[in-house]
TrEMBL record:
One of its GO terms (cellular component) is plasma membrane. It comes from Desulforhabdus amnigena. The lineage of its organism: Bacteria, Pseudomonadati, Thermodesulfobacteriota, Syntrophobacteria, Syntrophobacterales. It is a multi-pass membrane protein. The chain crosses the membrane at residues 20-41, 56-75, 87-106, 118-140, 147-168, 204-229. GO terms for molecular function: metal ion binding; metallopeptidase activity. This is Zinc metalloprotease. Zn(2+) binds at H76, H80, D174. The keyword Transmembrane helix applies. InterPro entries: CBS_dom, CBS_dom_sf, Peptidase_M50, UCP006404_Pept_M50_CBS.
Length: 382
């Protein structure tokens, strides 16, 4: 089973900025691509295409081109997110990876039509950017800034390439999503549509890796490594996407009540953190506890809030000071579906939620419990 679904992939990145309520994050892998592109433009492409300038001019042009390429990828990804938001979905975050971006959709499109619209705007925005950069290149040529014009025509070309690459009909690429929307609409089954298109995606990924290997043997080391990287990444996301759909389906028809834990061990808000560790974490082995005072629920405290404290803090701090206070975000209702519960866990980055019924805690639902349930269900229902 997938280790961390919904968190494609669950690595930390650097938060850049927020736009329209969406956090733009760069994965560390992006620095590799940044330096690679900057270097290959400043030392390779521009000097070859446009000889006779000094090194500083090439690096300057390379830097502008790399930054605008980066901006192009952000705009491509934003177009997906903005369309999704328009269609009533929630997008929290876009993470930029080694060769592009992934919008962290905390939910799937509800209909094939929505899926189609969200997918198709990506390549369209890349093509639109290509036209804009082409126009800019034309204007710069007319103004006799021919070196800068070369930079912009490169950007125009790279956006066409980005658009075309994304149109390849294998999931998770945009073209694969368009095809998935079509098959979903035809067959009525998102699971089957995802299976087929992610198989195509994986096939394409393997082809990239094979071609990359041949390139390496024929002396084109850098290009070959690129292709193998992209292939590995695509394969991984294609597989994850399919698993995610299966899990979502398994969770859709089951209520929280059926899976929640009702026998809970709760802790007092006035307890010292060191006591919480010795008398609860080490004793019961659960990774989180509801915090209660006179039968009233105040919040939850979990291992992640404790593990980085110093010995002194553990001795001086109380549970009340470190817990996550009660809010709508950490609660679900007993009749909500498991799919809703999981969505909330992903959105809040929590591994457990309180189950509230008329302001009374009636249980606790954990990510581990949820996945155990899927595993068991799979075992008995094939
Ligand atoms: Zn896209």
């Amino acid at each position: 089973m997938p280790s961390k679904k919904g968190e494609v992939p669950g690595r930390e990145g650097i938060n850049l900025f927020r736009i329209a309520g969406i956090q733009i994050t760069i994965d560390f892998s992006w620095f590799i691509i940044f330096i690679l592109i900057l270097w290959s433009l400043s030392v390779g492409y521009f000097p070859k295409e446009f000889p006779g300038q000094n090194a500083l001019a090439y690096w300057f042009a390379g830097l502008i081109a790399t930054l605008l390429f980066f901006l192009s990828v952000v705009i491509h990804e934003l177009s997906h997110s903005l369309m999704a938001i328009r269609l009533g979905m929630k997008i929290n975050e876009i993470t930029l990876f080694i060769f592009g971006g992934i919008s962290k959709l905390s939910e799937e499109a509800r209909t094939p039509q929505d899926e189609f619209k969200i997918a198709v705007v990506g390549p369209l925005s890349s093509f639109a950017l290509a036209i804009v950069f082409r126009g800019a290149a034309g204007a710069l040529t007319a103004l006799q800034f021919s070196f800068m014009a070369a930079v912009f025509s490169y950007l125009s070309w790279i956006n066409v390439a980005l658009g075309v690459f994304n149109l390849i009909p294998g999931f998770p690429l945009d073209g694969g999503r368009v095809l998935r929307a079509f098959l979903w609409w035809k067959t009525g089954s998102i699971a089957r549509a995802t299976k087929w298109t992610s198989d195509i995606g994986k096939g394409f990924a393997v082809a990239l890796m094979v071609i990359g290997t041949f390139q390496i043997f024929s002396g084109r080391l850098l290009g070959g490594i690129w292709m193998i990287f992209i292939g590995m990444f695509l394969r991984w996301v294609a597989e994850g996407g399919y698993q995610e759909v299966l899990i979502r389906q398994a969770l859709e028809g089951v209520s929280v009540r059926e899976v929640m834990v009702t026998q809970m061990v709760s802790v007092s808000p006035e307890m010292k953190v060191s006591d919480l560790i010795s008398s609860f974490f080490l004793k019961y082995g659960y990774t989180g506890y509801p915090v209660m005072e006179n039968d009233e629920i105040l919040g939850v405290v979990s291992l992640s809030q404790v593990k980085d404290l110093t010995d002194e803090e553990k001795e001086n701090r109380k549970v009340r000071e470190i817990m996550t206070a009660l809010s709508k975000e950490i609660c679900v209702g007993p009749e909500d579906s498991l799919a809703d519960a999981l969505k909330k866990m992903i959105q809040q980055n929590m591994s457990r939620l309180l189950v509230l019924d008329k302001n009374q805690v009636v249980g606790l639902i954990t990510k581990t419990g949820l996945f155990r349930f899927i595993e068991i269900k799979r075992l008995f229902e094939g």
